[in-house]
Amino acid sequence: MKIFGMDAVILDADGQTIINARDHIRQWHDHGLKTAVIISGKNSEHLKYSDVISVFDKKVYSDPSGKSESGNKSSSHLLIKASGELGVSPGLTVVLGDTEAGVNAGQKGEFAFSIGINKNHNKTPLYEAGADIVIDNLQELELYEEKGTTPYFTQTLPSVFSIKPKFFEMIWHKKIVIFLDYDGTLTPIVKQPEDAVLSDKMRETLEELAKFYTVAIVSGRDMNDVMNFIKLDQLIYAGSHGFRISGPNDMYMENEKAKKMLGKLDEIEKELRNKLENKIKGVKIERKYYAIAVHYRNSPEDQIDKIVNIADQMISKHTGFKKGEGKKVVEVRPDLDWHKGKALYWILDAVGLSKDPDICPMYIGDDITDEDAFKAIADDGIGILVGTHKQPTAAQYKLENVDQVRDFLQSMSKSYRTEKH
Predict the structure, then answer these.
(1) I need a surface site. Which of 250, 251, 298, 360 has the fewest CB within 10 A?
(2) CA-based radius of gyration for the chain
C-alpha cells in the first residue's frame, strides 16, 4: 500500500509518543510534508519540558488561550483547524492518533487516512473507532523511496515464506481455524466472474487441508455459487459477505434483516440493468443473493467514473443500502452491521470454538472487503493479504498470488502431519 501525494501530517497522541516521533517528524518535514500537533491536557505537561514542539510547523491547542485544558478530548474540529492553519485540505492530510477519539475524529473530519498508533497493545478498539490502519510504531511506515522525491507513506508486510520457520513456530500451540476468500485467493481474478473455476490442484489442497483444520470459505459471491465451484461438502461456506452461511451438521444461517430487503434489491437490480447493461461497454451486472455487483473490469477507463456515479445514485435513492468496493467492481449491499468479520465469529461460535482460549482464526484474502475480517481478528488471529489492493491493510503478513496460497496451505497440512503426529 502506498499513499501518494499527501501534503501534511497531523499528530494527535500522548506526550511520549510525540517525543518518540521526533526523528520521523523531522524526516517528514525535510521531504516536503507539513506537520502539525494537537496539544491537549493529556500531553501538554509531558511536552512542556521537551523541544519536540519546535519541530512542528503548527501547534493547535485544545484551549484557544493556548493553555491546554486537562481532559479535553480530541475532535474533528481541532484536526480541521490544524489542517487549515497548515493550508492543506483534509483530503491531502494523514492523521496519526493513539486513542479511539483521535482516529474517530480523523474519520469524521474526512481526512485522507486516519492511522492508529497501538500504544496499549490492543488494536481492536482503534479499528472499531474507524482507523484505516493500526500500527505498533512509526517504523512500520516508510515515507519515501531513496531515489524518489515525492513523499508518500508505504506499508510493508513480511511474506509468510520469508519467515516460514518462525511463523510455524508461532502457531504451533494454537488451534487454527482457516478462513479463505475465493476470487483472487483460491482462483486468479478473471474477466468474467463465471470463469473463476477452481483448479483441480487447489481443490485437492483444500480437501487435504480440511482433514486437519476447520476450513471456511468467506466470499462476496452467492453462497450457492461458491459451493458449486468448490464441491467439497466438508467445508463451511459463507456467501454474500456472510449474509448466508452453510456447513456440515446442518449448519445454516441467513440474516433475517437482509431477507426483508430482497424486494428492494430486485428493484435496484432492474434499474441498474436498465441504466448500465448494454449501455456502457464492458459493464456486467451480477445479482448475488444479498448484493448486486457492477463489474467494470472490461469497461473503458474513461467510463469508470460514470459507472460508479450511477451506482452511487441508486444507493442514495434507495435508503437502507450501502456501497462496497472491490477490484474493478462496485457493489450495492444492505446497510447492516454485518460483514466478513462478523460472519467469521458467527462460524467460530457455531462450531463451538469461540470461547476456546487457544483458538486462532487465520484469514487469507486479497480484496478490500476482506479488511473487515482482518480488522476483526487483529488482536487474536492472523491476517494474510494476497497481492495488494488500493487501501491500507490490517493484515500482518502477505502472499504474492494464488500459487503461493496453494503452497502455503500445503505447508499447513504438512506441518500438521509431521509435527503433531
Answers:
(1) 250
(2) 23
Assess whether 346 and 231 both reside in one domain.
yes
Q: In which residue are the cell numbers 519540558 written?
A: 49
Asked if 83 contacts 10 with a C-beta cutoff of 8 angstroms, the reply is yes
Judgement on whether residues 42 and 149 belong to the same structural domain of the protein: yes
C-alpha closest to that of 152 among 160, 141, 163: 141
Q: pLDDT for 154-207, tens place per residue?
A: 667 899 999 988 999 888 889 999 999 999 999 998 888 888 899 999 999 999
Q: Cα separation of 377 and 363, whole Å?
A: 8
- Residues whose CB is less than 8 angstroms from the CB of residue 185 and which lie 6 or more positions away in sequence, other chains included: 364, 365, 366, 386, 402, 405
The model carries a pTM of 0.79
Q: Are residues 23 and 115 in the same domain?
A: yes
Alpha carbon distance 397, 362 (integer Å): 11
Helix 304-317 to helix 262-275 angle, to the nearest 10 degrees? Answer: 150
Tens of pLDDT, residue by residue over 87-106, are: 999 988 999 999 999 999 99
Closest to 325 (Cα-Cα) out of 268, 292, 369: 369
Check whether residue 319 and residue 367 sit in a common domain: no
